[in-house]
Amino acid sequence: MSSTPVVPRQTGWVMGRFGLGTIGRLLTLVLVAGGVAVLPATAVPAAEPCGESAQDASAARAMAKQCRRRVEVLTGRSETALVFANPSGTMTAEISLKAERVRAAGGQWVTADATLRRADDGTVRPVAAALPIVFSGGGTGPVARIGKGDKELVLDWTAALPAPVLDGPHATYPDVLPGVDLRLTADVEGFSEVLVVKTPAAAKHAALKRLTFKTRTKGLSLRTDAGTGAVSAVDGAGTVVFGGSTPTMWDSGVKAGTRRASTVNGGADPAEALPAKQRPMRTEITPGELAVVPDASLFTAADTVYPVYVDPTWPGGRNHWVMLWKQFGDTSYWDRTCVNCDTDESNSGVVRVGYQDFSGTTTARSVFEMDTSGLIGKQLKSATFSITQSWSGKSCGGTAGTAQLWQTSRISNGMTWNSAETGLQWLSKLSSNNQTRRFNGSGACAQGRVEWDAAGAVQAAINSGAPVTTVGLREAGESDPYAWRRYQLDPKLTVEYNSIPSAPDQFTVASTAQEPGLACVPGTVPVVRSTPVLRVRASDADDDSLLAVTFTRQKQWVSQTAATWVSVLPDVTVQNVPAGGTATLELPAPQTSGRYRVTAVVTDGNGAGATGPQSQLCEYIVDTDAPGTPAAVTSATYPEDGEFHGGRGVTGAFTVTPPTTNPGDVQKYVYALTPTTTPPVDGTRTLTANAVTHAVTIQATPSMGGLNTLRVWAVDAAGNLSAPGAPLQYQFKVDDPSMAAGQWHLDDPAGATTLTDSSGYERHGTIAGATTGAPGPMINGWTATGFSPGTPTFGATLPKPFSSTTSFSMATWAKLDGTGTAAIVGAGTRDRGLLNRSSFHLMYQGGSCGWAFRFTNTTGTLFQACAPVAAPANVWTHVAGVYDSGAQAITLYVDGIVRSTVAVTGTSDVAGDLNLGYTVGLFENVEKLSGQLSDLQVWDRKIFSDEVARLIGPPGGVPAAGWELDGDGTDIVGRSPLQQSAAVTYGPNRDGTPNAAAVYNGGSAYSVTSGPVLRTEQSYTVSAWVKLTNPGTSSRTVLSQGNTTGAAQPAFQLMFEVHCNGWTFGIHGSPAGGNRTDACAPAPPVLNTWTHLVAVHNASTHTMSLYIDGVLAVSQPAPATPFFANGPAVLGQATYGGVALDPFTGSIDEVALYPGALPAEAVVEL
After folding, report:
1. Does residue 493 belong to any structural domain of this protein?
2. Nearest C-alpha neighbor of 880 from the set 806, 956, 799, 808
3. Which segment, 536-540, 824-828, 1043-1047, is predicted with the most confidence on average?
4. Which of 237-251, 379-393, 794-808 has maximum average pLDDT?
5. Residue 648: which domain range?
6. The domain spanning residue 668 has which CATH number?
7. Is the entire prediction scored with pTM above 0.90?
8. 727 vs 715: CA distance, rounded Å
9. Omega into 994 within 30° of 0, i.e. cis?
10. Where would a tag sit more exposed on the chain, N or C end, judged by fewer CB atoms within 10 A?
11. Which residues contact 544 (CB under 8 A, 6 or more apart)?
12. What integer pLDDT is reported at residue 24 of this predicted model?
């Protein structure tokens, strides 16, 4: 049968084991009107059913309060400690000397049990021990092994062992020598090995002259104490890990007189057995060997009673005890679990206290050291030391002597009576106990726990920060021969405590409740306005406790001779602050200018309440005087001369000079540029003044043409604003926005080696590995340039028409062959390879970033604006990147929509060209594009969202086809004219102009192109003005693009759908047939009324949207696999399998088809 596996013991318990929770709840603002501010009580979670335990301290405290009984905190449980929450709000820790429970392999706690069992591997192990202890199952190999953490001690016998006989914690190996048994005894924290010499003949065996054990260690070394013979296994720091007591030998005789001692006062109890003979043994250590040398005289004495026992022990617990025995003054009983190691001792107890004068005179004391490190910093309520008393020199009913509990100094391994005479201090008597209890008694005399008040010792340990509490038991006078007592080795400390709040921290002071506040720490003196707001974090390990925070304030009075602090301001207490929350003190009455200082303390509400230490001093200055208005503004880019300069999106530098009076008072400037007219309240548009000149240069980017006004205010250290209603105003005129500084349609003929710039600036590019003449985003439109990763010189280069230290923008159509990382356009030089490569780059990064605009400043810091949506392969997408040097921000647009704006710091400038299709690496080009690009434009200024939208829509975006239908089917683009059926007529348009709109009769009237117009597997937008006259009982199609393969059904229809009674945008997901996906407007159409319809298919996001009169009517998922319809575009009907269906009744005008998914901003321009 195998034993229950247990995990290695924990090496100690921390504060959390005493129920300390985490900190993290935030307190909201409190407005103080008087001396006490009360916060709203925090919401109480739903009550848990009453139980014996809860997972954490917070839950346990809530349950204890609700159920009016103590509740165990499971996270506080350890091998030697239990933690309970009390109904009063305090906590109780029960700390045992020895491990009482251990964790099994599955993580559950089980009762510590040293009973030995045979394991599956043939070894013998305790059922549940705190340390891994393994005994031999017989044969060769280690006789015993014990470990602790990464340390291990192994003992070997000199010959093969017989199979052991198991009895509880004992494993007896019979006749390991003739007439000699080896008995191993397991404890939950160690083990002992005893040789049982059964006869005088056996004692003559030569091996008993010097008992030898082979040893192996890991992370340990063996040492012996020359004075006591105590043998220990120590780590590299010299700390004892196992052992520490003197090996002893004793016989089986009973000292004369012990029976008399047990029957005084009329008692008739069993003998209080003391060994007749006990001897310490000398130990010798050599590499790989431990030898124990028995006292041969005990073997040969005529009065020796066999069997004789020979015993080295190996304890390894965290807590310790030592028995001091005057008769054996040089023998150490450090962490001994037995002395006689027999049944009588098991009954009467190994712990001895008191004096006796029969069969020799002796006195015993016992000292215990227990881990109380978790109580450091706590408020002690009470502490009790208890232990099970099992025997006494007095009989039941007799007059008992007094056992005293003392606070002592710390004990050490190897301590003996003699060494303790000078090495142990009995510091103060704590309490006394005179109870008489016996293992065979009854009633009040029955074996049971007895108690002493130990608060003095525990408090002393807390005060000194000692990790342990050390107490000793001794008899009052140590002269009454019947006042001795015996106890079981099960002492406990039971401690009730409360967590003392921590010193408040994270002190801040602000001018308003909306401001985050300035850190108030030694060495800094924040300056605020007349209504300071003080904030401080209140912490208490009892994380569900509601705390009170008291602020103590003083003001500095300055006389001609000195400055003194005066407490003229009353203390203010903020109540109901949750542990870990923020106490906020908002002073409503304006404070006069001057220097102030404040401290805070936290008090909890458990029991009598504990007040924690004082916070650090917070000093601040109240400044109520506003700075002067700035003196002037100048700008070379935008002079104030009444002429037009720069342009929309062109960043300009504006230098602000400080007020003429007290310029050093200015710390910052804030500004507003048309159309904004007010100072910021969110920290934007704020610049720090030069520390020497107190001036500042504002980089601002006009968003509007014409007359602009720059308004500037000065701000002092307190945040006071100069004349809020009368800022310095600087007026200048902004020119119209400039055209692109470079535009490459990338539609150069196949085989070209140059990319032509059509902007008029003649900035032609050079091709190195790219392929021109690839299909572009529009049928019959511009072609594209394709990129396929190849040589290190792969890609193309273009002259860079801007400086990346000032605002710039770029935009292009891009189609990826795959979804890997792919650079589109950027700038960098080879020597920047270690600084995030290019200084800026528009690219597809993939992963959690998707499309990206990257910006690297001159220190190598990378910023990137991301559109965290995967881009599907083979889909044309319009992407744009904008750098605004004035706002210090980069913005990424995808399909005309802002996807991300990210603040940047510093500047970035690289000499050289634009790189097309790759990133400059340290040794070669990297992040190479596999895909196509079309119509790349760059600007030496910021472009705005309305401009980006117009790059794909009107007026800047070029449609694939457009028909005004002013009496014929002419395509305004010139690519796809309409062929009109004879039944098409013309009537007035929405303005009433005659013959300016096509009229369809609901039958044979239609208009058709000669071939496809849109790449319907891509993103696209279609728009039309329509007037529906009489739908009847049929659906009516405005526009469709047909297909000649498969089921020959259209890719899309813009129509009135009779089944949903609304305008509808429908898409088929496969050329092979199947149902159409319809986005149907929820309201029916208004008949005989001109209506503007716009349908948008976004192949990147797989969405389809319908706008009616510029307002989004419906948006929903589109088919995941749209197809390219190779048939013509048709107005007035749709064709299914060669059959015309759903003919339109009414008028159609101004039809346009665009590649790409137009954003809402562009839709309103159609």
Report:
1. yes
2. 808
3. 536-540
4. 379-393
5. 632-734
6. 2.60.40.10
7. no
8. 11
9. no
10. N
11. 21, 57, 58, 61, 62, 578, 579
12. 30
